[in-house]
Each structure stands twice: as structure tokens, then as C-alpha cells.
Known about the structure:
By secondary structure, chain A is an all-alpha fold. Chain A is built from nine helices and no strands.
Amino acid sequence: xxxQSLSEKARLLTETISKQxxxxxxxxxxxxxxxxxxxIGQKKNAIFTFSDKCMSARDVVDLSFDFEKCIEVGKDVNxxxxxxxxxxxxxxxxxxSDELDVTIKIxxxxxxxxxxxxxxxxxxxxxxxxxxxxxxxxxxxxxxxASKIGGYLEEISDLEISGLNSSNLTKxxxxxxxxxxLLKDLFGSDVSVQKFAHSIAEGGAxxxxxxxxxxxxxxxxxxxxSFKIVPGLAHSEDNx
Amino acid sequence: MSEEFAKFLCWDKKNLNDTIFDDVASLxxxxxxxxxxxxxxxxxxxxxxxxxxxxxxxESDVLESLTNAIGQRNENTVIAVTGQSGTGKSHxxxxxxxxxxxxKKGIHVIYVPRELRTLRELIGRVLDGLPKSDDVEKVRKKxxxxxxxxxxxxxxEELLDSIRIIIKxxxxxxxxxxxxxxxxxxxxRTHDTDVSKVVGLPDFMLxxxxxxxxxxxxxxxxxxxxxxxxxxxGRDSEDPEFQKNDLKTDAKVHHDFGVNSDEYWKWNYIQxxxxxxxxxxxxxxxxxxxxxxxxxxxxxGVNIQSVFESSRRQLKAENxxxxxxxxxxxxxxxxxxxxxxSLLLQPKTELAAIRAVFxxxxxKFQVLPSTLRTRLEHHYRIDSLSSSESYKSKLYxxxxxxxxIARLGKNRIKDSWESSNYADRKSGKWVPNACLxxxxxxxxxxxxxxxxxxxxxxxxxxxxxxxxxxxxxxxxFEGQITPRDLVSSTVxxxxxxxxVEINGGSFPSETTRERFDFSVNASKSTVVxxxxxxxxxxxxxxxRCRVIWADGVKENSVITQAFSLPEAKSNHVSDHPxxxxxxxxxAPEVDRVKPKADPLKKLYDxxxxxxxxxxxxxxxxxxxxxxxxxxxxxxxxxxxxQSDKVQILLDDLFGExxxxxxxxxxxxxxxxxxxxxxxxxxxxxxxxxxxxxxxxDHAHWDAFNEARNYDFSGNVYDAKLYFDEFVEDCTDKVxxxxxxxxxxxxxxxxxxxxxxxxxxxxxxxxxxxxxxGPDIIxxxxxxxxxxxxxxxxxxxNWAEVSKIALHILDRIDSSWVVDYKSARQGQGAPLAIDAVxxxxxxxxxxxxxxxxxxxxxxxEGAFSDLNLGTDLISKIDERKxxxxxxxxxxxxxxxxNFDSPNVGSDLREIVIALNRAKDENLFRPAVEYRxxxxxxxxxxxxxxDLDVSSWIESLDEIKSGDVNRILDAQVWSNDLIQIGGxxxxxxxxxxxxxxxxxxxxxxxxxxxxxEFEEKILGHLKDISGALLGIEGKKL
Lengths: 240, 1035
């Protein structure tokens, strides 16, 4: 084996270092691509999720969101795909990635609004219900039903926070049915009774509200000794 | 002038022993007449209780103090007469005894003279003086039985045993100023009840070796025994007592003790440690007095004190007082306590009063018991005679009386005393005058000329003295004079010697001269110039006479005749300085303080046997050295005598100590290698030094110059001649010695210097010029040790060559050439170097370095450093083969390591590669980048322009083994070695870094970028589908 001179060894060292640097540069690009792939994949999943929810909600409520923007972005993405088929340009990917974020926000907002509307449509006047069960929770014979309705209303609030999905939508429908049944058991189907109950919930009913079906309902339910007549204006009269 | 006056002698040597007594204590008791004839009144002071002295007293005052007390008081009267040894204390007591009123009633006189020579005689005299009684006889017999009937050896043994018993059992445990612990150990006692026995002095006194030593004939114990039985030693001598040498035994005494035993170590302490030796001596002496007293039998029954008491009782009954006259109280020695007690015992009603006069030396007086000293009635002190002028007349009177009685003879004095009446005795007229009455009424026939030439005092002729001689005799005592000294030396011995010498024509001899102050203000050659008419012996005699009797000038002709001196017609003593001669250079006026004493007198004293003061010798040497040096310098114009190099050469040959002063005194000796110039206290030496001294003090030879510091007491011209001759002689010898030293070198030393430096520089690769001429000399001389930035070749086979070469550059610097071969103006810088004769040696060493100096060549003395050249050549010869192989090997490695002779270019490339490796964290070993690479980088960068073509080209020549080529290669050998060393590191770093780079390359990850690109595009496609799908769903 021929002995190398110092000069030869120096040259060899220089060449090895250059090679190594080249490899290092490529590895760096790959890592960046890997990170971008994951990121785009995540955005794709978000778009898929929110667009599916939107589609689901559309069956229940009317949705109004910026469809045009979403379509525009879809077109842009298509354009980028075409461009990068010839020569991959990572910068163009980064630019469309930002557009995807806008799209995701539009879809997320649409889903949240549609869910809120679905709940309100399913269980109407949740605030009035809360006042009614609050008033009747002190009335013997009505207190248990009032308490259950209160519990269902809390579950609905939790579903609202949890967001729209098929499971929550099913649960909402079930709870809504249960509330309707309990109200029907408590107040029946007579309208004057329901008015009287709402007046009581609003602060007091006037003598006029004491219709025969109301009196009948009071007796039937054993609420006669639960109410008293006091001078002053009833709540319903205040509003009049 | 009477012709018979020659060798005239008016005293008889045979009579001197009968008439002149230097110690009145030795005067026969029946020689009062002589004693009184010689008596001169003493200078006495009275000392009060506070020690204050009042002078102006004389012997009559002391006598009055004694006689006035007699019959007046019923208390003892004790009078002490003190003074230094020889001042006349015994004389005074003897005089008092002689002048006590004869037949005075009511007193009983005991006179104890000092001539009694044993203690036994002394006590016997006291006992004889006391009234006869049984007690007196008992004491006398007891003393005889104790000390006379026994042999001295027996007495010594008894005394030693007695001392031992007293130490063991009777001395107190403690004593002031002694360490109590050491004292107890020495007494052989202990307070510790657990310790059964302590070895002490009493035990050592039983050890044979110690005992024999204590009982040796010249030891303290035998001296004590002798003091009782035999003659006491000397006048005013101390009582014998134990001294250190009484306990300093031979080493073999230690053999009597077990090694490392208590006895062994304690005796060792006593022998060697003053803390043990001093109290040991003190304890022995403490016990001595008591032991002596016991040995004499005086400790029981009647004793001296009791016999004194009974005698006083007897005298009281006779209505008498006891008069005690002791010429020396201290001579009672071991019995003095008894005497003191008796003096202190007051008479009261039953005892006779004591009237005592005792003499004692000042020192012994101070150690008398305070009980006695404080009860003295009177204390008189006899002053020492002084040689000062105020005492001169007293001394003249004193000496003239002795001269007179020496001439009279004992019989004539005694006859005169016996035939004189009281009035003549009292007035002193009873003493005849030998000059005025030759016993037949005629005066001495020589009286007139004798008195004129020699002088007289109180009508007593001073012959053979005159007043000048007498003064010199007195001055010879240099300080305090005692009458005893005067009588002994100045009268008795002098008259005895001079009687013989005058009679024999040898007066005054050298022995006689020693009795006189011989200082004189003139050299011998001035006092008695050298003359062919007078023999050297007579010249010496004449010189002694002129100095002693005439203060250095010509003596009276009567003296010449009386002493049978030569009629030296050529004798010449000038009373004035000599006239200046015209060839003496004029000296500048100098304002000098005129000294009181003649500075040349010290030289005359030296000539007369007194040492020269050390400082004077130093000054003379310094001046002579300086003068001779300046003259030597003029012989060597190319030598720089101010330089260290030349000084070393000179110092090896010549120094201040080259001037060797002889005669009395030790003036030091220089190295045996120095040239020596003897200076004797003879005519030549004294005149030369007189000249030198004059020149040192005046810088000219004008003895009449008004600004002179003193008159030159002699002939300044003679002195100058002696001085010049001496200096020229010294100069010639020093010059010759320097020339001889230089010429004895095996090779001319300065050309050797240049050649050796050239070789040293070549050995270090520092000599570039190779053509002999001024340039190469300049280069060789310019180079200094400091020029060497780094120590070259400090390791390896050439290291020792380099070391010697550097040492040569240090030791043999350019100053060798500059100081030995430069022309200069005065003491200024060198103007030119005389180099032409240096070229041949230089050429030789450049052409044939190993053969320039042979190994057996040796330079000596100041040039011994040049032997370094031989060392260098030997070392080069020894190392050249190894160096050749080393150079070849390193050059071959260099060729392997680098692609081309342009090594600098390769080094640049290597450094760049290694720095890149460092940037990529590939430099290995990584730690060496900072620890070595960065440090070596400046050195490497220093070689960026290096081209080694010339090195490679010389490879074949080096292979040939030519030492000149090996020396030439030293110019670059250091670089070659350095690059070789650096190459080792560079190789290591390149290999390490290359391996690291390969490993790193292999470890880098693989992967497919296209795959990721495809995935991204797939995602985007899905996204696009989803978004556009929204549109479709909307539709």
C-alpha cells in the first residue's frame, strides 16, 4: 500500500466533507416535506369533518355560509396540483396551506351556528321552560316533574357545548321528546292551563286566568292549597 | 670632659639586690633604713561612706588617723588602705609601722608583713604577736598537727572527702541565682519520695576517674594544700579555688559509667552544658571554705577567733590596746572570717580595743563582708601613678631617690641611718647624696659634665638616664604606672643591664631599647644615614641612643663618649626640610588641613618594631597598586584595562596584596599566584613609603610648598628616588608577567577567541558569511546570546553541541577581542580593531574545524575559558555521525510527507482542510484543536513560504559525511526538525479527521423526497375534491 502524503490526506478530507454536506442538505428538505405532508393531511381531515357535519346539519336546518370561498379554494388547490405535477414547488404548497386554514374556519363556524339553531328548534323557549320549572319546583305534586325537566335542560346545554355530530343530534331528539311528555303530564293539553302555568312562571296569574279548566286542573292535581289570592296586579296584567 | 667618663659606672650591679626592692613586701624586716631612704610620699585619697573621694592626703594622714584613735575611744578603729596591685599599699603599711612612735605606751603592735609566704607562717606570725598564753600554743599545735604532720596527699584526700560530705549533707537545698532543680540534682538530693537515689556531685567524687582528676597535682585541691604549707603564688594573688578545668575530665572517664545510664548523661551535662558546669563549680567552692576550716581543726575547741578574744582580755587587763597592721588582709584566705570577726568584736568592758590598718586590693575590698566594710573608721585609696606631665616631677623624684640608693649601697645607707639623729631622720637629711659625697666627702669628679649632659633632679644625677630617656622610659608604660613597675623595670633591671652593656661597650642594646618608648619623627636613615664608616651594629646602637636620649637628633658628645658610641663624622640630622630639586614637578595648590601629628611617624614606628595601622597599610597598598597599574597600562596600548577581561588577567597576577608588608604586625597575604613585592621596615622600605605617603598627601614633591600639610622629616629627594625605583621595579615585573601569560597560551588567545566564536555560531547555524574578511568578523562579534530567539536543538544528539556553543557565546563574548585588540583614545570607546592578524586562524577553522585546536591544548588562568573551544570541537566530532544520520532520515521523511519542495504551499492546504474539519466537528482528536493546533498554527504559518529545494539538494553532500556540510546544514536543521515534529501532529490530525468524516458519512440517513412530494399532492387532491364536493352538494 502506497503511503499517502500529508497533502493527499488533506485533499481527501476536503472531498469527504463536501460529500457529507450534500447529503445533509437533502435530508433537511425531506424532513421539511414530511412535516408539510402531515400538516396538509391534518387540514384535509378538518375540511372533511366540517364539510360532512355541514352536510348533516343541512338536513335539519338551513345553512348559510361562504360556499363560494370554499369552492374558490378548491379550485386553487386544483391549480397547485397541476403546477406541481411538472416540478414540485414547496413554496406554492405553503401558500395554499394558508388558504385551507380560511376554508376550515368557514366550515367550522357554519357547523357551530347550525347546531345552535337545531337545538333551539328542537327545544323551543328553553328560557321560559326554565322559569316554569323554577316556579313549580316549589309546588307539591309538581316538584318532581319540574326537577326532571331541569335535568334534561342541563343535558341539552352539555350537548350544545359538545358540538354537532350524529350522536348528539340523536340524543337531542330523545331529550326533547322526554321534555314534551313531562310537560304534557303536568299541564295537559288545555291551552288555558298552559297560559295559567306560564303566568305563574312569570310572577302571578290574574283572576281571569282561573278558568274552569284551570280550576279543574288545580283540583285534579291537588294544587288548590298551593296558590293564594293576594291584592295587586298579576304579572300578566303588568305586561298588558 | 674627663676621658675616664667613658664606660663610667657609679653603681655596682652586685649591690642592686640589696638596695633596690621592687616589692617592699620582700624587704627584710631589718632593712627599714633602705625602705625609708627610698620613700617618696604617696598620692592618697580619702573615701567616705558614699564612695566620694577627697584627694591630697599622704601617708602621714593615715598614720594620724591611727594614732589619734589610740587611748581615745572604747571602740575598735579599723582603717582600710586600698588600691590597685603595685600602687604602694604594703609600702604605706610598712611606713606606718616604721613611723609609729617608738616605745609608745599602752599599745601592743602586731605587724603582719606580706613577705610571709605560707598561710601557716602567716597565722604563726599573728600567734607570735599575741601575748603568750596556753590558748595561743594550743592553736599553734592544732594547726601544725592538722597541716604539717600530714603528707600533702593525705591532706588533699581529707579535704576532698570533707567537701563531698558537706555537699551531700550540709549545703542548703536552694541558693540565690541557681536553678533549684539543677542544684538539687547536683547535690544528689530530691524532694520526690518515689525516687530512691539521685546521682550528684558527691557520687561523682567517689568515681575513680573523677577523683583522680580532682586530686591531680595542678588541680585546685593541691593548690589549696600548698597555700598552707608552701609558697603562695605571686603578689596579690587570688586564693586558689575550683575552676572549670577541675571538672573537665578525659573522655575515658565516661567509661566508668554505664552507657546511657543516669551517671553517663549527668556527667555529660556537667562537662558540656554551662547551665550544669557553672553551678557545679559554685557548689564545690561553696563547700571548700567550710571543708578547709574543718580540715585545719579550727572548727572545734580553741581557734583563732577565741585566742584573739582571750588575748584582748589579757591586754585589757594590762590597760593596752591592740594595734594590728596587716600588709595584705586578703592573704589570710581561708582564715579571713576569723580575722573579720575579731575586728568586728567591740571591746566593751572586758576586751582591749583594736586599732587596725590593713591593705587590700581594690577588687578584694569590694567582696569583703559588708559588716566589715560599713564599720570602717577610715578608707584610704592610693592612686595609680600616671605618666602624665603633672606626675612627671613626682616620678623624677621617685626615680632619682632609687638611683641615689643604688649608688650608695646598703651598708652606707644603714650606717647613715644608724648614725643620724631624730631631726635628720625626720627631715630626710640622713640620706647621703652619692653625687655630692663619695663617702669621703668629695663629690663625684664627673659631676659637672655628667649633670650637664645627663641632667639631675634634686641634686641627684640622672646618669645613665637623661630626662629625655627618663620620659621615654615612663612613656613606655602606656597608661597606669605602679611604683613597683618603675622600681623593677626602670631602676633595678635597667641599672643591672646597663651596667653590663656600658662596661662591655654594647650600650644601648636591643634589650635596653625595649624599655623605652621608641617613637621618633624621622626614619632611621635620616637619624643615622647609612655610612661605610660605621658598622651596622654600631649604626643600630647609635640610632637607639639618638632616639632614646636625643629624640632622633644628634646626641650630646658626652653621651657619645659615656656609651662608647662611634664618632660618626658623617652623621647628619637635618633640622629643616630639604630644598626642592628642579626635576620635581610643580604640584597644584591644594588647601589642606594641616594634621597635628607627623603622619610619617607611624612609618618610623614601624621601622622601630611597632605594627603599622591596618588602615595605613590598606591605603599604601591601594595607592601603590593604582600607581603601578597606571604605569603598566602604558605598556599595552591595545589592552583595555577598564574591562573585566583584562582585569581578570591582571587580578590573577597582581593585586593590592602583592605588596607584602613585613616587620611587626600581620598585614595579610595574597594568593600565592600573585606577584609579590616585599616591603621591609628598613631604609629602603621606610623611605619608599615616606615618599609614597608624601605623594599621597600632596600629589607633588615640593617639600617647601607653602600649602604642604606637614614638613617632610627627612630627605624628600631620597624618598622620591626610593619610591620611583620601587614602582618601576614593580611595573617591570607586572608587565613581564602579563606578557609571559599571553605568550604562554598555546594559540594566540584573541585569534582563538574569534575562531571559537565562529565555530560556535556555525554549530548553531547562525553564521551566514563564509568569506574571511571584515564582514565575517563583524558578524562573529555582533552575535550575542540574547540574539538567539529560541534555544536551538535543546534536545536530541546535537543538543550538547548547541549547549556548549551557547555557553561559548556567553563566556567568550566580543569583549575579548574588543578589550585585547582595540586601539582607543585614553579610556574611551575602541576606535579600531586590529584584526588582520586574526584572519589566518579564522580561515583555518572555517576550512578544517575539527583540526583547528588539538584536544591536548590547554589555556590557563585568565584565558581558561578558551578551553571551551576544545570542548566544542570534541563534541562536534563525537556527534557528527549521529547528526548526519538524523539529517538524512528527516529529509527523507520530509520528501514523503510533502508532494513537492514547496512545503509552504502544502502546509496552507493542510491547514485549510483541518480548519474545515473543525467547522464540521470532524477534527480528531477534537481536544487537540485548541490544545495544540491553535498553538502550533503561528509556527506553521511561518513556513507558508518555505521551499526546501536547497535542503533536498544538499542531501547527497550530507550523505558524504563532510562535517562542513553538517555544520552548513545547521542553518536549516532546526526548521527541518521543527517541520518533522509538526508533520507528526499534522499526520495524526489528518488521519483522525479523515476517519471521523468517513464514519459520519456512513451514518447519514437515506429517504425518498419524491415520496413525500407525492403524498402532499395526494392530500391536496383530496382537499380539492372535498371543497369542490361542497359545491356539488350545494347544487
